[in-house]
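From the shared-data thread, chain only:
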Amino acid sequence: MPDTAVAFSGGVNIHLHKVIPPGSGLGGGSSDAAYALKLLNDLWKLDLTNRELQDLARRLGSDCAFFIENKPVLASGRGDRFEPLDLDLTGYRIEIMVPPVHVSTPEAYGMVTPRKPERLLREVIQLPVREWKGNLVNDFEEPVMKKYPLIREAKEELYHRGALYASMSGSGSAVYGIFDTGCRMPDA
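Structure, as C-alpha cells:
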C-alpha cells in the first residue's frame, strides 16, 4: 500500500502507512480521516465533542463521521446519520477475504439499484446471526459480483469454511464471514 505524508500548518507532520487495501469497502480512507481528526483534537487540546468531530468528518467524506465513535450504529443518509444499535458479536470470529479486485465506490454506486427490504434492517440485525443468511442483504452484491465473480467465489468460500453469515463489505471488494466460536456468554 502507498505511504502518504502530509504536512499541516501548525507544525504537524503525519505519515500514514496504509495497510487496508484501497477499493475493498473496508473504510480505510474514511477511518484514517476520522482518526486524524481525533488525533489533532487530542494533540492540540481542542476539546471538540464527538458531535463536533462528526460534523467536521462529514465534510471529508460520506462515511467518515461513522469512525469518530466507532461503535455499532444504524447509519442512514449518506452513511453519516446514526441511530444507536444493540449488537454484540462476542463469541464470534470474523474473517475477511480480499480478492485481487478493486471496486471503486462511484462504480459500485452506478451499478446498484436500492431495493425496499422485506424486513427492516433493525429487525434483521436483532435475529440470531445464523438467521441473517437470506435476511440481511447488501444491495451492492448482485451487480458487483456479476461484474467481479472473484468476489462471489470469496463469499462462497467463507460459507464452505463454515461461516454462519457472509457478505460483501460495503461496496466491495472485501468479503467477511462471521463464524461461531462456541464461546459466547449466556444471555442474562
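The chain has a mean pLDDT of 88.
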